[in-house]
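Late entry, evening session. Most of the bench is empty. Finally got around to the prediction I had been postponing all week. Sequence below, unchanged from the version circulated by S.P.
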Amino acid sequence: MTRVAPTASEELTCCMTVSLPPAVQAFVDATNAGDTDAFVAAFTSDAYLEDWGRSFTGHDGVARWDRSDNIGKRAHFEPVSAEPGAGPGEWVVVLTVTGDGYNGTGPLTFTLDGDRIARLVISPT
């Protein structure tokens, strides 16, 4: 059996880690662990979440979205990139999403308030 060594780009891709702000890392970790309480706790109590035009507010709204579109669909996130956004506390994070709902790669725009997510906008690429 002949073993083929990975290309330089394959090695780089396999071993890269994306550095995320702590609140966004908590969002990813909670989703991947299926931990709804930790997921909701990553947001401020008055958070705003918009997913392709659908709006959710506060912890109750975030929990509702989590049940219908995230942990409730066994979503799993793999960060691809993270860059500061245009506004204060804003980050644009590209995630690859897999699970029983949406599957694909796209940007999420987070606005942070300290160690919590105050706003999350998910829009088509």
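Two things to note before I forget:
Residues 1-13 have pLDDT under 50 and may be disordered.
The beta strands are 43-51, 54-57, 76-84, 90-98, 104-113, 116-122.
Will write this up properly tomorrow.
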